[in-house]
Every structure is written in structure tokens, then in C-alpha cells.
Amino acid sequence: MHLFFDLDDTLLDDSKSKDYYLPKLYKEFHAFIERDYESFKDSWIEAIGKFYRLYLAGKLGFAEQRAERIREAFNNSWISQSVLSSVDAAFLRYFQESWRLFDGWLEYLGKSQIRKSIITNGNGAQQRLKLGVLGISQFFPSVFVSEEVGFSKPNRGIFDIALSAVNERPDQCIMIGDSWEYDIVGGIGAGLRSFWINHRQEIVPVEPPNFETFTSIEAVIERLWEIEESGNFTQG
User: Distance of alpha carbon 4 from its chain centroid, rounded?
Assistant: First the structure.
């Protein structure tokens, strides 16, 4: 058996990250933000999804999608390039400072014997840096990042590349992630069992086979221990 993990909002606590860096950005650059804080926060979160999709589709570069996010969240299309660069630099600094694991993962990863890899969308350098800052690189000998392999989740291409690289059949693997669209639909489409960490308690129209849903990190870790303790896995 092999476990494939998403990174953001699966291992890395994305909500706490935003709670850390967004107030700092607002305080430092409020003179250029034509919104109150709550509106700024909501707009920033909405803009992440909007422009990140364009990045994954190849319509924006990685740095460009950050710049567009800032313009939209600030509600300031006339923001100067120098200010934009300062905001981006501050964001990257605060963002890196904010990276923390969800409680429970470090203990599980340190004790578990099942082979594990990462399948994540995003920029290769940044995603690998996250693993290092989080102190978990050693648990994931293989890391598959969309920018590096040429396919983004949910395209099955990234899953096929990962499966080939670790020499596993899809029916012997589990994809673990928080995104219904990217992780679960993508994983199931590639033939993997899929564990959905449904933080936001979203409702899906049809629950597919070969799929389990969890509303907390604690619950999915408990389920993974059940599988491991059953002995029905291949040790690396």
C-alpha cells in the first residue's frame, strides 16, 4: 500500500496560516486597501481560488497570479508596481512564517510504516520549501508537483506519473486531500481509493464508491492507524 498526500490544507494548516498573515498584510498596507478588513479577507480568499485556477490552466504565471490576487483583494487596480512588489515581498515573508502542520500529523508520520508520497499542485520550489520548513521532508521520498510534472490535479496525468514512479497499482493506493475537485475527483478518476478531509463540511451530489469522508484530521489519522494495524499494507 502507498499513501499519496495533498499538502495545503491537508498537512499544512491553511486556515491558521491565513489568520496569521492576512492581519499583518492589512495592518502594513491598509493605506492602499480600499476595503475594511473583513471584506479584504473575504476578497483575498476568493481571489486565491480565482487566479490560482488561471495559473493551473497556464493562463497566468505563478508570480502573476499573486499580483492579480493583490490587486483584486486591495480593490485598487491603480496600485503602483513598487507598492505591488512591496506587498508581494511582505506576503511571502509572512506566508512562510505562518506554515504549521495540523496537530497530529507529525506523530503519525514519525511512527507510520506505510510508504508515502506527496501529490500537490503549485510551484515546485515553494511546495518543497514548505515540506522543509514543516520538518516533514524525510517522510516523503517522492514529491510530485504540478509545475514540475506538467499536469495539475485533477488531471490523471499527475497521478499516473506518481504511480509509475513508486511502482504501485492504483487499487493499492489511497489519495488523501481536502479538495473535492482536485484530490478526490482526481484520485478516483485515476483509480485510487480516496480519503476526503472535508474541513468545510461541503455536500457533494453523489458519493462515489471507493471513497471515505472525514471532518477532522484526528478522524483520518485514526482511520489510517486502523488500516496500518490491520497489517494489510506493504512496508517500504
Answer: 12
Q: Is residue 140 part of a domain?
A: yes
**How far apart, in Å, are the Cα atoms of 235 and each of 22, 103, 119, 232?**
42, 25, 20, 10
What does the mean pLDDT of the chain come to? 94
Instruction: Give percent of the chain above pLDDT 90.
Output: 90
For 106-154, give the secondary structure using H, E and C. HHHHHHCCEEEEEEECCCHHHHHHHHHHHCCHHHCCEEEEHHHHCCCCC
Calpha distance 202→168 (Å, rounded): 31
CA distance 173 to 175: 7
Per-residue pLDDT at 234 exceeds 60: no
Q: Is 69 inside a domain boundary?
A: yes
- C-beta atoms surrounding 29 within 10 Å: 19
Set of cell numbers at residue 76: 485598487
pLDDT in tens, 56-99: 999 999 999 999 999 999 998 789 999 999 999 999 999 999 99
Q: Tell me the pLDDT band of 232, cut-offs 50, 70 and 90.
A: low
Q: Does residue 236 fall inside a structural domain?
A: no
Residue 112 structural domain: 2-13+101-229
Q: Give the residue from 53, 62, 90 showing the smallest Cα distance to 74.
A: 90
- Whole-model pTM over 0.90: yes
CA pair distance 202, 233, nearest whole angstrom:
30
The reported pLDDT for the residue numbered 206 is 73
Pair 146, 31 in one domain: no
Count of structural domains, the chain? 2
